[in-house]
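quick one, 682 residues, struct below
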Amino acid sequence: MELSTPLQSFPGIGPAKAKALARLGLHTAGDLLTYWPRAYEDRTKTYPIAQAPAEEPVCVSVLVAETPTSSYIRKGLTITRCKVVDGSGSATAVFFNQDYVRQALRVGESYILYGRVEVSGGRRQMTNPIFEREDRARFTGRIMPVYPLTAGISNNLLAGLALQCVEGCAQLLPEELPAGVRQEHALCAMEYACRNLHFPTDQEALAIARRRAVFEELFTLSCGMAFLRKRRGEMAGRVFPPGSVEEFRPLLPFPPTGAQRRAMEALRDDLISGRAMNRLIQGDVGSGKTAVAAFAVWLAHAGGFQSAMMAPTEILARQHYETLSGLLSPAGIRVGLLTGSLKAAEKRAVHAALTAGEIDLAVGTHALLSEGVTYRELGLVITDEQHRFGVGQRSALSAKAAQPPHVLVMSATPIPRTLALLIYGDLDVTVIDELPPGRTPVETYLVGEDKRARMYNFVRKQVSQGRQVYMICPAVEEGESDGMKAVTAYAKELAETVFPDLRVAFVHGKLKSRDKEAVMAAFGAGEVDVLVSTTVVEVGVDVPNANLMVIENADRFGLSQLHQLRGRVGRGQWQSYCVLISDNRTQETRERLRYFCQTNDGFKIAEKDLELRGPGDFFGQRQHGLPVMKAADLAGDTRVLKEAQEAAEALLRDDPTLSTPRNRPVLEKIRRLFAEDGDIFN
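---
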């Protein structure tokens, strides 16, 4: 067998199975060898039937005592029962919709069953246990891998294929880590790692194998980000005129905070340095990042350059357009808006104005990347809520410039340092770590369904005092998910039954852009008292008069998302409140939500969120632009990450271009890892 052997050549893999495997990115034996399990089941523990613990799956070695019998219960449900025995007693093995069991289990033969032994009224039962003949056991009596799956592919099928591949060609896997790195960090050989990641001989072997795979993955990613950062650091940049914060100050409606001043000065130093800026401005909700971005646009305009600012949603793009128009138009800076919902004639007009240099700052969504958009002299690119864009999208916008533009990245999503080191490894980072004076912390409360009437009274009280209220639901329509509040039905109930005398409106992501904008404009103008919404309002929406945020089914949201939602209130002069409603009584959920109620610090919340949920779910979706991690868990592997980053730095110090023969495999692996971002490493 070779690494290039097609999986379709294996017995039992026809065109349909091959197509399903391809959905997992599996085409050859080599692909499967590095397709790591997501979890493991310890099937090494074997108990007699009578002594098997009820709370955990175990193996039992049994004899089939009676021929299995099947009962037809109703359409779509058949139950097969079989009596099994050992020296300690007997049990009934029960199978749902598995008619083949009648032929597979033969009286008088020995089998290993894996599953939970349930005890009720002195009788023991195993429901849908995995079983194998004792003399042919492959997947019982061992630590069993559990793989990420897709429709049409079972775990047993993948494990069977993996076993054949491991036995057939694990020894052919190339060693892509330099020998010196392996030796210095005491890492096992790739063949050992592969064999023991798929089918570990014991827990210690699994830990040794996993450490090798995690290190290699984080080492490659760290090398890639450092490599990219170094290349960008060497790029020449346009030189902007050295304007000062004091000259810019009259355009601002408030004096900048110390943190804003430091951020502006860092930007100015970058923009006059002669090298291309690549900087992240990270600050909590309401810390004033937009004013810092406006300063950079002001400097670009003073040098005769255009700027482009990309936001992830039309609502946020329109808000930036309005804010920046107000701030910058007194300085003669012309701001244009470009989004997907503009009419064709409006888009053509904006395109023409950009090409002619009649727009100094283009604010928009992904429409800024579209083919027909050209700039007369693009000198500064700004992306907001950067975790929603990949490295490639940032590069695509930069490619609109004749020469490499300066790049400014903004994020109001506090990101733990562990994750930031990877997501933003190619950027210089500035944190705005103070809020403008007068921002009162939002008071946050967790309540159950039994307090609903009191919560409604509190909503009514805020509206009677002239304030406005957000009410957030996790679903758009009923039936999307069990037991969750849905925007459309809930808004109808509130308008007709609970608050018939108040002005209730709703907004969600499935509405047309124009309809969304009309509702948000009405809310911003004070023409709506209660806005029922999904998380479409989580980023950038700024209505200072809204001082109450009610979040239904709060347990369905991650902590970072809750923090973004809470950031929509507390923006005006009134005391603001956030009320979380949840009847979920599990200890972990209650502790998580109580922790949120106790702190307003976005960075602490982000650390806790990463610790609880892991990076895959940190942003709700895989929006952060990182290559997919197969082995590493950024929440749990911080120590290995630090080690891998130090090793990557040392390697690049010795060989900055990774061009020596021993390091060439690292460069090739970097290119493969970042393949989805195009040719940024070519």
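The two ends are 32 Å apart (CA to CA).
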